[in-house]
Design brief:
single chain, about 140 residues, alpha+beta, 2,3-Dihydroxybiphenyl 1,2-Dioxygenase, domain 1, 8-stranded mixed β-sheet, 3 helices, globular
Length: about 140
Amino acid sequence: MEQLISLITLGVRDLHKSIAFFERLGWQRSVKAAEGVAFFQCGGIVVSLFPLTDLAKDAGVSAERSGFGGFAVAYNTRSREDVDVILAEAAAAGADIVKPAQDVFWGGYSGYFRDLDGHLWEVAWNPGFPLDERGAIQLPD
């Protein structure tokens, strides 16, 4: 597994209020046509805001804050096949696979694992977000 982080998704209670908050901080939203989610280019990574209950449902975990903190680190792969490889590597290293890889509603392929400290990671291939040679996503406007 390459040492990189490509996209961080924050589960939020009120998407519109959260977008307004980050825009007040001077962040500029990308992919404005995307509904139900907000994306911000942050140097070599992307931060997205996604409704907390939807994020928990996507990962197959409870939205209760006792076991899910409303936060998932996304590791984007260069190919669909890499998703299965990375999930297998994570499991071999002691991670708990909480959602096996599968086709997802946004047109990609992803699964989730919990690391040894319980942090939730999504491993995803997104054909709409290709990676450059450094592993960075360049979002369309």
